[in-house]
Amino acid sequence: MLAPKLSHQEICFLVHDLGLERCFWAVWPDQKSFQAYGFPQAYGVEERKLSSLRKRILAQYVAAFELDISDEAKTSIYRRIRRAELPEHMQKKIQEMLNLKHDLFSQQYQSIGFEEEDLNDLSLLKRRYRQLATQHHPDQGGELSRFLLLQDMYHQILRKMPRESND
């Protein structure tokens, strides 16, 4: 159920499809509040289609406009809000696990020869991959298992990079 009407003249909102006719919605009093990564004034998850939820918000909030952000950004906002609902000790545990996962990820890629800056720049990544592929290729005296591991890691990194830089 949506929150009561806000006293502000203009609000901004987002709706995000979670699948299986479930949608997440969030409402901010204004765009400045959203841009400051403020917690939304109201939010929730409802069992309805995206289009009907969007119409309902627009009907309830007269001066509403929908934020024009990517689905990836909407997912990130949804996760951040859901994580904030957890007790503080659980939030810390999740952050520790994410940090550990990042450290293991970095160590694994560095062990094969990638460097931290390679993981953030597509051109550096490709250049480093070509160097390492030449070095570890079985025809160049490298081990087949290490070469296959290099290929697998390279493709994992490509999948984790933002789409715009990966095209």
Description:
- This protein is an alpha+beta fold.
- The protein has helices spanning 31-35, 50-60, 71-84, 88-112, 122-136, 144-160, 163-166; strands at residues 11-19, 22-28, 42-46, 64-66.
- The protein has a four-stranded mixed sheet, with helices on both faces.
- It is elongated.
- The chain starts with 10 loop residues before the first strand and ends with a helix.
- Mean pLDDT is 78; it is low at 1-8.
Secondary-structure element pattern, one letter each: EEHEHEHHHHH
Mean pLDDT: 78
Biggest sheet: strands side by side, in what order?
3-2-1-4
- Report the strand count: 4
What would you call the shape?
A: elongated
Largest sheet geometry:
4 strands, mixed
Query: What's the total helix number?
Result: 7
Return residue spans where pLDDT drops below 50 for at least 5 consecutive residues. Answer: 1-8
Q: What proportion strand?
A: 5-15%
Secondary structure elements and their pairing?
Blueprint: E1 11-19, E2 22-28, H1 31-35, E3 42-46, H2 50-60, E4 64-66, H3 71-84, H4 88-112, H5 122-136, H6 144-160, H7 163-166
Parallel strand pairs: 1-4
Antiparallel strand pairs: 1-2, 2-3
